[in-house]
């Protein structure tokens, strides 16, 4: 049984006219996950720095900004300026991941690197020791409500293997398609935090869904 895992609801999947009450209904989460997209890296426009600031004012939970953009350096800085506690950016569009990771950490925020489904874990082997978090996309970036790709399990296991010696504290996160039916297997592969949209906000009781997902991931 695992000692702890983190459940991080993704506000992309909440009712966009009711974000304040959505935040109140996830008080037992470990963090709030905000997708910051640019309409280029993935085909959607979601949130921006103003929402990061608003959520920080409303909730005591850490806020993580998941930047999905073709120019992550610019938007990462906006997220940091807005007070994000963790900032994640995609390996696919970043030309200097180490420089950006070090910059994020120099501000006191946690640095995360995201891998889209088509990206091999080996692409981050050289820099995995410099990140607090690796976020493995279980779906193509852009929209909530998609099914987890089967290839995700093997990628989580591979990242776990890569990190075991060089960065054992690495937070291995999965984003996209996480639900009650697959979270235990993802945890068994080495994932320790879970960005969940539909499986939290698509229920009558988001806090209850968080509790259930956490218990399943911990093997209870
Ligand atoms: C994809 C989105 C989703 C979202 C989670 O770009 O990032 O992964 O956070 O939504 P669900 O859990 O519905 O896939």
Note the main attributes of this structure.
single chain; 19% strand; alpha/beta; binds D-xylitol-5-phosphate; 8 helices
Summarize the structure.
This protein is α/β, with parallel strands linked by helices and 220 residues long.
Question: Explain this structure to me?
Answer:
It is a single chain. With 220 residues, the protein is an alpha/beta fold. It has a single domain (6-217), classed as Alpha-Beta Barrel (TIM Barrel), CATH 3.20.20. Helix content is 34%, strand content 19%. It has helices at 19-24, 49-58, 72-81, 97-106, 151-166, 183-189, 198-201, 206-217, and strands at residues 6-9, 32-37, 63-68, 86-90, 110-115, 133-137, 171-175, 193-196. It has an 8-stranded parallel sheet with strand order 1-8-7-6-5-4-3-2. β7, α6 (183-189) and β8 form a beta-alpha-beta unit. It is globular and about 45 Å long. Bound molecules: D-xylitol-5-phosphate. D-xylitol-5-phosphate binds next to β8 and α7. Keywords: Carbohydrate metabolism, Iron, Isomerase, Manganese, Metal-binding, Zinc. This is Ribulose-phosphate 3-epimerase. One of its GO terms (biological process) is generation of precursor metabolites and energy. Homodimer.
- Strand content of the residues, in percent? 15-25%
The major β-sheet equals: 8 strands, parallel
CATH hierarchy, class: Alpha Beta
Helix content: 25-40%
The CATH architecture name reads: Alpha-Beta Barrel
User: What is the total tally of β strands?
Assistant: 8
Distinct ligand kinds: D-xylitol-5-phosphate
- SSE string, helix = H, strand = E? EHEHEHEHEEHEHEHH
User: What is CATH's topology name?
Assistant: TIM Barrel
Number of folding domains?
1
Low-confidence stretches: none
Based on secondary structure, the structural category is alpha/beta
Measure the end-to-end span. Answer: 7 Å
Adjacency order of strands in the biggest sheet: 1-8-7-6-5-4-3-2
């Amino acid at each position: 049984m695992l000692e702890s895992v983190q459940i991080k609801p993704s506000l992309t999947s909440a009712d966009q006219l009711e974000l304040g009450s959505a935040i109140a209904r996830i008080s037992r989460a470990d963090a709030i996950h905000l997708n910051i997209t640019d309409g280029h890296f993935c085909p959607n426009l979601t949130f921006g720095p103003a929402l990061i600031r608003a959520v920080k004012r409303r909730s005591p939970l850490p806020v993580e900004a998941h930047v999905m953009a073709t120019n992550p350096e610019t938007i990462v800085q906006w997220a940091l300026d807005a007070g994000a506690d963790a900032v994640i950016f995609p390996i696919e569009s970043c030309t200097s991941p180490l420089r950006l990771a070090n910059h994020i950490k120099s501000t006191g925020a946690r640095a995360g690197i995201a891998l889209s489904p088509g990206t091999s874990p080996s692409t981050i082997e050289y820099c995995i020791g410099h990140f607090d978090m690796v976020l493995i996309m279980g779906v193509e970036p852009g929209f909530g409500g998609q099914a987890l790709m089967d290839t995700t399990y093997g990628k989580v296991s591979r990242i776990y293997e890569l990190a075991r010696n060089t960065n054992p504290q690495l937070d291995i996160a999965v984003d996209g398609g996480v639900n009650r039916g697959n979270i235990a297997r993802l945890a068994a592969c080495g994932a320790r935090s879970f960005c969940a949209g539909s499986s939290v906000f698509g229920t009558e009781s988001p806090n209850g869904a968080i509790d259930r997902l956490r218990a399943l991931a911990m093997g209870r």
